[in-house]
Amino acid sequence: MRIDIRGDKVKITDAIKTQIEEKLGKLDQYFENPEELKAYVVVRVRNKEQTIEVTIPTPKFTLRSETSEADLYTAIDFTIDKLERQIRKNKTKMRRKFKDVLQYEMMMNMQEEEEEENNSQIVRRKTIELRPMDEEEAVLQMELLGHDFFIFKNIDTESVSVLYKRKDGSYGIIDTE
User: Fold this and answer.
1) pTM for the full predicted model
2) What's the chain's average pLDDT?
């Protein structure tokens, strides 16, 4: 797996880089072609908290984990453990759900774009490609990303829908006309 490591208000030393590469290397065993994958790692420092965010987009799904700890190496360990649990937890769901290679291509492929000029209150902009999927696939993808909402093209209603997690732990859907 290729690894892209960035530091935000922190210098990435060789020791940090080696630790991240070693730990992420453990995840290679779960992928068929790990050399084709790229992991995006962002290390941040805010006050006394060290935060590491790892995003691994694959053709089948997107893995994402973020952890904040006082010690960076502890945060790295926790983040990798979270990613590994996500893979194992959802392995049977994904096998059952994504039997056909064509269904893999229907998963959402997110691309972030930072806005160069910040003249308004918008501080971040994302562009997403809407892929057709059913509601169960959207729930699975939202759980994998660790987000509270997910935008997708609903196969059943043929409209753009927003799936969101309610305070009681259940899910809601907003459909467009």
Assistant:
1) 0.56
2) 79
